[in-house]
Amino acid sequence: MVKLCNRCQKEKAALKRPKTSEQLCKQCFYTALEDEVHETIVKNKLFKAGERIAVAASGGKDSTVLAHILTLLNARHSYGLDLFLLSIDEGITGYRDDSLETVKRNEQQYGIPLKILSYQELYGWTMDDIVRAIGHKNNCTFCGVFRRQALDRGAALLKADKMATGHNADDIAETVLLNILRGDVPRLGRCTNIITGEEGALPRVKPFKYTYEKEIVMYAFFKKLDYFSTECIYAPYAARGAAREFVKDLEQVRPRAICDLIKSAEQFRLDTKTGESLPVPGKCQRCGYISSQDVCKACILLEGLNKGMPTLGVSRTRTKKAPKPTKAVQPAAVNGLVQ
Ligand SMILES: Nc1ncnc2c1ncn2[C@@H]1O[C@H](COP(=O)(O)OP(=O)(O)OP(=O)(O)O)[C@@H](O)[C@H]1O
């Protein structure tokens, strides 16, 4: 017997939604997902009319679907946003070079201008160079810290008001678990925030906070979106992989587990009486970019690389005293890079 779509009751059901177990036709699935993202955007006041939004685009499924859905919702609901694609080329041969080709095609497909910035031009090192120098251990620390700053720099060049990233519900649930494993209570409370960095120059928003990865993949697949699907070649060495597997196992047993992990972490709010305080954003004395310390993590890591002491700054203990300044990356070095 043909199973009809639970919503329209007319079309044949094409899929079972991983999040709700509803059996839907393709069109009703698209509408359900798009409406949920719209609701998330409106309820959480993620955007204001007239804002310039940098969509952090890696060429992967999440950011590709994000660029697609934001373009669509911006037109459908007259958000009045100016959208831009912003990509960081970490310099990972056989991975990022291929995914950037996808983003270049997305620029044409969605009609959104693209800006690419590379670690090579910002820091003088590619990730391939870094892995050659330090090995596979800790390379994700360098990549994560440099990417975060590189995205901020790119957004500043684009004069963006906000940045939207493709972090989905699974990513956030994984981060919750990692923070529990590390006993990092302040981060545990903060990692589920849908808007971060509001106190600084560039707030970051996560429109896919409640969107399941499996549904993003289904959406991209059924809509035949052009995205790059290979994992980072250095990813097998990341601790996140184990948390990812665990979240997938939990989801298998109980699909709600992903939402529940996010909800439970939301209950962990910082108790100011415990003496723990949130880092106060300031400026790095060397490069001038946002930092809660005198010298930002990117400058400390870069100093370690340039001095042949790559473990400098990798430890999670906070440096009270800033190390002596060496050559810093000057903001001026990347001025005039807007294409
Ligand atoms: N190289 C990059 N350039 C621009 N944005 C990036 C880059 N890498 C990651 N991001 C942003 O951070 C988000 C989460 O990063 P993650 O490492 O999970 O991405 P990914 O798996 O490479 O690709 P995606 O999340 O797009 O499927 C991405 O959705 C994207 O918005």
Automatic annotation (TrEMBL):
InterPro entries attached to this UniProt entry: CTU1-like_ATP-bd (IPR056369), CTU1_C (IPR032442), Ncs6/Tuc1/Ctu1 (IPR000541), Rossmann-like_a/b/a_fold (IPR014729), TilS/TtcA_N (IPR011063), tRNA_thiolation_TtcA_Ctu1 (IPR035107), UPF0021_CS (IPR020554)
UniProt-listed CDD domains: CTU1-like
Keywords: Cytoplasm, RNA-binding, Transferase, tRNA processing, tRNA-binding
Annotated function: Plays a central role in 2-thiolation of mcm(5)S(2)U at tRNA wobble positions of tRNA(Lys), tRNA(Glu) and tRNA(Gln). Directly binds tRNAs and probably acts by catalyzing adenylation of tRNAs, an intermediate required for 2-thiolation. It is unclear whether it acts as a sulfurtransferase that transfers sulfur from thiocarboxylated URM1 onto the uridine of tRNAs at wobble position.
Bias (Low complexity): 325-339
Domain tRNA(Ile)-lysidine/2-thiocytidine synthase N-terminal: 53-229
Family membership: Belongs to the TtcA family. CTU1/NCS6/ATPBD3 subfamily.
Keyword Transferase: yes
Name of the molecule in the record: Cytoplasmic tRNA 2-thiolation protein 1
Subcellular location: Cytoplasm
Assigned EC number: 2.7.7.-
PROSITE patterns registered for this protein in UniProt: UPF0021 (PS01263)
Naturally occurring in which organism (per UniProt): Coccomyxa viridis
Disordered, as annotated region: 316-339
Pathway assignment: tRNA modification; 5-methoxycarbonylmethyl-2-thiouridine-tRNA biosynthesis
Residues in Cytoplasmic tRNA 2-thiolation protein 1 C-terminal domain copies: 282-312
